[in-house]
Amino acid sequence: MPENRFNGFTNYGIGIGLRAPHYEHILSRKPVVGWFEIISENFMIDGGRPLHILDQILDQYKVVQHGVSMYFGSAEKPGRDHLRRLKDLVKRTNTPWLSDHLCWGSVDGRYTHDLLPMPYTFEAARLTAQKVREVRDFLEIPIAVENVSSYAEFHVSEMTEWEFLNEVVELADCGILLDVNNIYVSSRNHNFDPFTYVNSVAAERVAQIHIAGHSKFKKYLLDTHDHPVLDPVWKLYERAIQRAGHTATLLEWDDSIPSFQEVHNEAMKANRFLVDTTLAVAV
Amino acid sequence: MKLVALQRAVARAVMQPLTPSERMRRTAPGGGRMSAYAARYIKPNDRLTSFERLEIYNRQYWLRVLDSMAEDFPGLRAILGQRRFEDMCRAYLTECPSRSFTLRNLGARLEVWLQCNPKWIRGKQTLALDMVRLEWADIRAFDGGAEPALCLEDLSGISVSGARLQLQPYVQLLELHYPVDDLAIQLRENHERADFASNGLMENRKSVRVGPVAALEPKQIFVVVHRIDFSVYFRRIEREEFALLSALRSGKTIERAIELAFQRSSIPEFDRGGYVQHCFQTWATLGWFCRPEEINARRQSCEKRVRT
Predict the structure, then answer these.
(1) Contacting residues of A for B145, CB less than 8 Å apart
(2) Quick check: A93 and A63 in contact, CB under 8 A?
(3) Cα dihedral B113→B117→B120→B123 (10° resolution)
(4) What is the DSSP string of A117-158?
(5) Do B43 and A111 touch (CB under 8 A)?
(6) For A63-111, how does the pLDDT look when each residue is reduced to its tens digit (9 = 90+)?
(7) Please, which residues have CB within 8 angstroms of residue B192's CB and are 6 or more apart in sequence?
(8) How many CA atoms lie within 13 A of B217 on its CB side?
(9) B156 and B122, same structural domain?
(10) Residue A71's closest chain B neighbor by CA?
(11) Fewer Cβ close by (within 10 Å): the C or N end of chain B?
């Protein structure tokens, strides 16, 4: 269902990522956009221009927070300063749900600033779910975990990535931010069928969907967010919304960012799949 | 294998410096062959070995942190040159990896580290340290906190004796030995011009040429890094102003701060009253002081009376 307890029973439709090159356009032209996703870390600061811009955006648009450094899968506990700043921002934005990645990136207090893949073990699932619960209890809002794109797999893994995702969200009783581009990138890098992944996730837990572009290298795909969405990713998207319904969908474009209009037009392409799915369901 | 043990092992490899040709080292952390180290944890596939898969993360790590350092310290990069700057950053980040959830704090320990490791800035030590201080102050001024500001009319109600004034958290005070503010402004202008033609990532990897670096002569300056309308500015101030503001920041009373400001001052005693008045008026206009609690309380009570 598009509206569920993992996205605060909202039905946000199509949104785009709020990025600095578009600030001026958005504030001066006030384009019609369903919602913006912000990177929480860009606004977990004490003051200055970023928060001033955010407040102006909040006056006119719906905003959802997406994080890149909670590292639910890191064996260590989240820092108190991190959580305090995140909670301050949650109060400011009134985000109906908050997402971050199902990955790790720090150990012994040292940060890699990367989204490193998890070993798919029962121990890792249990520890990750426990951390998701702790963060949710502290922030007091629904949490959705996002599947990451990856370039490595561990020998110690005891299950597939989608089984691990389902295990974590069941244990944590949290939502899923299903990134269909990441599924496609990982499927090519690890030789699995991306539709098996999409067909296996707990559809009733999908709070949000990410779409994005990626880059092809000779021996692997890299998740670069610097291109339009490619056809195989749209096909996965179509299948995801057939299963999960018209879930809040967001286009990520983080590098070589084109004009606001171009990004917006690319995001709105999702509409043709949403309409088609409605017709299919109606028939 | 325990999760934390696996994460420690992988993080050590990911954060290990690259070779000069920006590839993963053949030697693993702690010795031994990296190919065997990688194969212990990571599965190969039909196109990539375990080594090659781990190398993707190793290279991404260094690309990300070096780009972040280059973005935060363009002045230091101009002073040291591209190659020396990157070598220095690699050494710094190897000894002082990020301990914050945000890349914004990556350079927080750079000044102290350079003081302990002066070989990286040999021949340009004072100039380089001045630039690091200025660039770190720039970051802090950009997103530092701001309290309600004291305005000019509030100023007239404050008695000099016994009263204290707090500076805004975003206001940064610097005593420098080179006019690095001029150099930083020139770099900023060059960068803004270059941004039209190329994307951010490529721009960061380009070497920066700034003519005046070599010709920069030592000159003691005092600078306030502050912001107006959310843009950061460098404002040169006089020695007496610096002493006065520093004393206020350290919690001295206004009276004591004024006394300290004029120790060893060449400003004639006759002119000092007007000088101080002018300073406070300028600083209040710029919004550098936080409004004291008692004025805040007085205002709130007035507003309440108006409402009722």
Answers:
(1) 46-47
(2) yes
(3) 110
(4) PPP--HHHHHHHHHHHHHHHHHHTS-EEEEPPP-S--BTT--
(5) no
(6) 999 999 999 999 999 889 999 999 999 999 999 999 999 999 999 999 9
(7) none
(8) 1
(9) no
(10) B101
(11) C
Looking at the structure, tell me whether residues B153 and B271 fall in a common domain.
Answer: yes
Closest in B10, B50, B144 to A47, CB measured: B144
A-to-B residue pairs, Cβ atoms closer than 8 angstroms:
130
Q: pLDDT by residue (tens digit) across B1-41?
A: 799 999 999 999 999 999 999 999 999 999 999 999 999 99
Helix (H, G, I), strand (E, B) or coil at B98: coil
How many domains does chain B contain in total?
A: 3
B277 and B191 share a domain? no
Is B45 at the interface with chain A, CB within 8 A? yes
Could you tell me the CATH superfamily of domain A14-282? Answer: Divalent-metal-dependent TIM barrel enzymes (3.20.20.150)
Residue B225 lies in a domain: no
The reply to whether B186 and B123 lie within a common domain is yes
Q: Are residues B59 and B157 in the same domain?
A: no
Measured between CB atoms, which of A46, A189, A255 is closest to B169? A46
Torsion angle (degrees, nearest 10) of CA B11, A217, A69, A59: 170
- How far apart are the C-alpha atoms of B265 and B261, rounded to whole Å? 7
Among A82, A154, A189, select the one facing B6 at the smallest CB separation: A154
Domain layout of chain A by residue ranges: 14-282
CB A90 within 8 A of CB A65: yes
Contacts of A75 (CB under 8 A, 6+ apart): A104, A107, A127, B2, B3, B4, B7
Picking from B53, B71, B89, the residue at the C-terminal end of a domain is: B71
DSSP symbol at A73: T
User: d(Cα B4, Cα B256) in Å, to the nearest integer?
Assistant: 54
Q: Are the CB atoms for B98 and B69 separated by under 8 Å?
A: no
CA distances from B197 to A88, A102, A167, B210 (A): 38, 37, 48, 19
Backbone phi, psi, residue A177, to 5°: -100, 105
At B166, list the tokens: 């707090």
The mean per-residue pLDDT over the stretch B181-200 comes to 65
Question: In 3D, which of A175, A190, A41, A166 has the Cα closest to residue A96?
Answer: A175
Query: A154 is written with which tokens?
Result: 């561990």
Between the alpha carbon of residue A260 and those of residues A18, A21, A36, A52, the distances in Å are: 10, 8, 12, 20
Query: How much is the pLDDT for B51?
Result: 98
B152 and B78 fall within a common domain: no
Domain ranges, residue B62: 1-71
